[in-house]
Structure formats: C-alpha cells, structure tokens
Design goal:
- This protein is α/β, with parallel strands linked by helices.
- It folds into 3 domains: 175 residues, P-loop containing nucleotide triphosphate hydrolases (Rossmann fold), CATH 3.40.50; 87 residues, Orthogonal Bundle (Helicase, Ruva Protein, domain 3); 64 residues.
- Helix content is 36%, strand content 10%.
- It has a 6-stranded mixed beta sheet. A two-stranded antiparallel sheet has the order 3-4.
- The two termini are 26 Å apart.
C-alpha cells in the first residue's frame, strides 16, 4: 500500500483485516479525513483488487432519480430514458462499491438497498427481471448516525447490515505528528522521487522545520484535503522542492483573500493540552477551496433538514446568514420536496423575528455540535 506508512497503526490493522474479509465496511469521520482513500486501500488489498472499484456520491444524485442512479434503467422506463443504462452497482460486479455519504440516501430507497445487500440482486428501473450482482459494499459518512436513527432518517436494519466492520478516522488535528509524512506523500511526484543524498539531490523535496511547525499549529477543519490544497499553493509560491515557513504563510493567507479578511491566527499547540479543539460548529465558518465539495455539503444539509435553513446552518457549523449567501452563490441548491434549483420558502422553523428587515434569513448564529471524532475501530460478526 503506497500510503500505508502514514496511517495510524490501528487504522492500518483495520485495513488489513477488512481487505481479508467480504463483510460490509462502514467508514466514519469528518470531511477530508481520507475515507475514500481508505476504501480504495481496502479494495486494492482484497481478492477483488483486479475487479472494478466504483464510488457513488449520494449527495450528487437527484432525489427523483436515485433508484435509476443506483440500479440503472431500461429504455423508456421514464421520460428522458432514451436508452438502457447500467447503474454503478452493476458496473462494480465482482469488485467494490463505495456508497459515499450514505446518510443522504432517501428513506424509501434504503429498503431497496437493504434488499440488494441481503440478497445480492437488483432490478433495473423498468425491467421485470432481477439480476444477480456480486459486490462488496463500503459505506462512508460524516453524519451523526445516532441522530439520524432517532429522527427516523436512517433505517435501523440498514445500519445493522452495513455495519459489518466499522472504523472512525481521526481528524488531522489529532494526528499532527504525521504531517511531515503526509506532506511527503502529497508532494509533486517529480520532486519526491529524489531524496537528499541521491544523484538528483537538487530535486529532493525539503520542508523546513519552521514550515512543519507552522503546519502543525493549524486547526485544519478541512483535514487532509485542506492540507493538500495548502501544500499545492506553497509549492507554487516556492517554485522549487524547498518549502519554507514564508511559503506556507503565503499559502495559508491566500485562502482567505476572497473573504476580505486575514486567516485567523493559529494557536501554538501545547503538548500537555491534548488535541486542538475543532472549529466546526462555531460561528466563524471557513470557506472550502473545493467549491464543488462545499456545494455538495450545502445540498446534503438542506435535503436532510427538508429546506429548514436554520437547522441546515447548524449542521454545517455556520450562521444562517452565511448559509443564505452560499445558497445565492450556488444558485439555490435543491432540497427534498423542492423542484431542482428551488429552496422551499418559509421552512426555516423560526419566527419572523429571526429574519432581518427585507425578509431575508436572520442574523442569529446557531451553535452546532462540535462533531469531534475519536479513533474507534469495531467489528461485528
């Protein structure tokens, strides 16, 4: 495994056990912690490694077409079905299918997914025939599954089925000692190929101690994904394999230029103070570099809250005002029960006093739960 040496030992052991089994796997953790990478490592270490690996992001699937997007359809099955489509479940036959953001799957479709997982059969939309499919299922989510169960948004029997083996990936702020190895893994291949002492030493990747200390002092709400983007900007600022603290500072600052404010100053880590607390769930929301990922998160939160923007903002760790700005920027992402491109009006769950003059969503900020994740590995027989 190419990135095995940067995995925590408990996670590495879990990957090895999961790769040797065909049990369904449930991956838990904050956004950007590497759930997709871990799923691919499990697939590549299994006996299915020569078969396809497919990833299905359920937040990007239209609620009205979810069944077709999962299982495919026959020609003429519905308006616009001009030809036969083989769904990702069938495409992954013999291999592994990652159901990313499994919590975004509508409850009516959870029963059909459960049938597929238990019986190994699917039925294309518009077809009278069942098809046998051999697929290893891996599900990933950053949601609070206990809360979803309590609200009736997740079937208990589906959770029982997908929870064959489970692991919770720790956030980057709890594994800052691995940042140097992660940086080497994420460095441009042409630079990392050479190391100090090699013939091509002038191309050897070098991260100065000051740069490492600065990276370790960050809170990293976007975890490894955010680290990758910051490193890319630092490499661009450096123009060479040698990255200094000045290059890292420029990379960190550039992410906040579009906001018109400097990046919040990171606190120096105190070895005796434990992990750096999460910034998710506070009023100060930091925009993501990956706008498509940010839009998917907003869409997912709005669907889960059925258009109630106050509840959606709380789950995203931002104020309603910020959520409203994102909705306008992204063109009003759809929610369940709304037409594509339309956000239901009057479903914020608040009173008119929650709105500022002009009728736009209010200025009151919502303190969301922190969503801290602690490393946890568990298996079920």
């Amino acid at each position: 495994m190419k990135s095995e040496y940067v995995l925590p030992s408990a996670i590495r052991a879990f990957v090895e056990r999961a790769a040797g089994s065909d049990l369904p796997v449930l991956l838990l953790g904050e956004r950007g912690t590497g759930k997709t990478v871990l799923a691919r490592l499990i697939h590549e270490g299994s006996h299915r490694s020569r078969a396809p690996f497919r990833r299905l992001d359920l937040t990007s699937v239209s609620p009205t077409l979810t069944e077709s997007e999962l299982f495919g359809h026959e020609k003429g099955a519905f308006t616009g079905a001009d030809g036969r489509k083989v769904g990702p479940v069938e495409q992954a036959h013999g291999g592994t299918l990652l159901f990313d953001e499994i919590d975004a799957l509508p409850v009516p479709l959870q029963r059909k997914l459960l049938t597929f997982l238990e019986e190994g059969t699917i039925r294309r939309v518009g077809s009278p025939d069942d098809r046998t499919v051999d697929v290893r299922a891996i599900c990933a989510t950053n949601a609070d599954l206990g809360r979803l169960l309590a609200r009736g948004e997740l079937r208990p029997d589906l959770l029982d089925r997908i929870h064959g083996m489970a692991v919770r990936l720790p956030p980057l702020r709890e594994r800052v000692e691995e940042i140097p190895d992660l940086c080497r893994l994420l460095a441009p291949p042409a630079w990392i190929a050479a190391r100090p002492g090699d013939e091509d030493e002038d191309r050897a990747f070098e991260l100065e101690p000051g740069a490492i200390d600065l990276l370790k002092a960050q809170r990293w709400p976007g975890n490894i994904r955010e680290l990758r983007h910051v490193l890319a900007r630092a490499f661009l600022a450096s123009g060479s394999p040698r990255v200094t603290s000045r290059h890292v500072e420029e990379a960190l600052a550039s992410a906040h230029i579009v906001l018109g404010s400097p990046r919040p100053e990171a606190k120096k880590p105190d070895p005796g103070a434990g992990p750096v607390p999460s910034t998710e769930g506070r009023d100060r929301y930091e925009r993501l570099d990956d706008r498509s990922e940010e839009r998917r998160r907003v869409v997912k939160a709005l669907r889960a809250s059925e258009g109630r923007r106050r509840e959606a903002a709380a789950s995203l760790g931002m104020s309603r005002t910020m959520l409203w700005k994102l909705i306008r920027e992204f063109g009003s992402p759809p929610t369940s029960g709304a037409r594509e491109g339309q956000v239901p009006a009057g479903r914020d769950g608040g009173s008119p006093s929650d709105r500022p003059p002009g009728g736009r969503p209010g200025q009151r900020s919502v303190q969301a739960r922190r969503g801290l994740f602690t490393p946890c590995v568990c298996e079920r027989s």
